[in-house]
Every structure is written in C-alpha cells, then in structure tokens.
Design goal:
Blueprint (H helix, E strand, L loop, with lengths): L1 H40 L9 E3 L29 E2 L8 E3 L9 E6 L4 E12 L4 E10 L6 E10 L4 E8 L5 E11 L4 E11 L3 E11 L27
Parallel strand pairs: 1-5
Antiparallel strand pairs: 2-5, 3-4, 4-11, 5-10, 6-9, 6-11, 7-8, 7-10
The structure holds calcium ion (2 copies).
Length: about 240
C-alpha cells in the first residue's frame, strides 16, 4: 500500500517540476528581452567625440556641441567635441582669460604665414536648399593682418567641397563682437565642418558662443545679416 500511495505523490511532484521548468524558461526569455530593451535605451558608448550623426529633424542639442567651450573632460584644454589643426600649439587653448558666455572661450594665437583652426564636423544628409544659421563672437588682442573667420565647409555628394565664412575685423584690439549670417546649401551635402580660423594673423584671437543650426529663435539684439557667400580662400584651413 505504501508504494501505491506514494505513486500519485511522485506524479504530482513530476508535474510540479515540469511547471516550474516552464515558468523558469519563460522567466529567462522575459528577462533577456527586457535587458535588451534597457540596453537599447542607453546612449551608445562608441559615439565619436568629433563626428556625430544628425537625424533629419534634430533637436537643438544634437547639432554643434560644446559651442561655448565650457566642457573639457580630459583637461587637455582642447574643448570636448572639437579637434585642432596640426598647426595649433599648446598656447592655443581653452581659456578663462576672456569669455563672452560662461567661463571659457577658445584662444588661438595667430602667427604670420600660418593658418590655425579648431574644427567640429557634423555628418548628415542635407538636400539642396537646406538653410542654416551661423553666428558667433570674436575678441582680439593687439593683433593685425590676415583673416579671422568662423567658417563652414560643406562636402557635397561626389566629394567636392565649398567653404562659406563669417569674417571678423583682423585689426585689433577689438572687444567682443557678434556676427551672424545665413547659409543656403546649393547642393546636397553629407558632411559639414565648422571651423574657427585664424590665418596669417599676428596676435591673440578669442572665440565664444558659436551657433550653427537649421532653426533660430531671435533674441536680444541678435540679427542675421545677409547670406554667406562662398569663400574658398580658407578651404584648406578647415582641415587637420
Ligand atoms: Ca564660453
Ligand atoms: Ca579636451
């Protein structure tokens, strides 16, 4: 009787074990799917510090990054997301000596016969006629000569490049000066490089509060001047 009476109990245990196994498998599947969803929500750690991809209608924060030069996470005095031309030296750096916005600006010490630049490249897919707004502030020391610009270099489909520039007075000293302009792309572009350019100028030049976007909300005294025209004299200055 003992063995017969135990049999239903053993059957019952087997059923229970099967049910528990099924629940365990279902639980594992749910956990794996959930963890993948959480992973997808996290920012991608592999994002390049100098090139970022722009969606067709990006929020403002996805455009030019660290445009006021306040962030420098590795403390090498080259602002995050920006890269330098080979001609920059240690004296060309983020500095708190002058600032138009926040605590820091970018200082480039111009040298005769040398073209120096700080660059940031955006990747995207822009159609002919795409419009942009470019603005920024520049302050100069007792320098003179050459060319001081906030420039945009577009790389068109097929590889041709064209540069547009907002020029500032190269005869210093000049206090913080604001300039702004609009840019309409004549051709489809896949890459746009923003550059702070100091070419063949002798003296200190400070840049701050650079703006580049497809939208603009007017504020204070900010005004956008006439459209920027092509200026290929500094195309080579917008490369490393
Ligand atoms: Ca700043
Ligand atoms: Ca840095």
């Amino acid at each position: 009787m003992d063995s017969k009476s135990k049999l239903p109990i053993r059957h019952g245990s087997a059923h229970l074990a099967v049910v528990l196994m099924v629940l365990l498998v279902v639980g594992l599947v749910v956990a794996v799917v959930a963890s993948q969803k959480i992973t997808n929500l996290r920012p991608k750690a592999t994002e390049s510090p100098v090139t970022h991809i722009i969606s067709p209608t990006p929020p403002l924060s996805d455009w030019l990054k660290n445009r006021s030069f306040e962030e420098d996470s590795n403390r090498d005095e080259i602002p995050d997301f920006w890269r330098k031309s080979k001609t920059l030296t240690k004296s060309d750096r983020r500095t708190s000596v002058a600032n138009q916005d926040g605590n820091y600006s970018m200082l480039i010490n111009g040298q005769s016969g040398t073209s120096k630049s700080l660059l940031q490249t955006l990747s995207g897919s822009w159609k002919p006629g795409a419009q942009f707004y470019l603005s920024g502030w520049v302050k100069t020391g007792k320098g003179q000569g050459g060319k001081l610009s906030i420039a945009v270099k577009a790389r068109y489909a097929g590889g041709k490049q064209e540069t547009f520039a907002l020029d500032f007075s190269s005869k210093g000293p000049v206090e913080w000066t604001y300039r702004a302009g609009t840019l309409t792309l004549p051709k489809a572009a896949q890459e746009i490089t923003i550059g702070l350019v100091v070419k063949d100028h002798v003296g200190a030049v400070y840049f701050d509060n650079i703006y580049f976007d497809s939208t603009y909300t007017p504020g204070d005294s900010a005004k956008f001047e006439s459209a920027l025209t092509p200026d290929d004299s500094i195309t080579s200055s917008l490369s490393e």
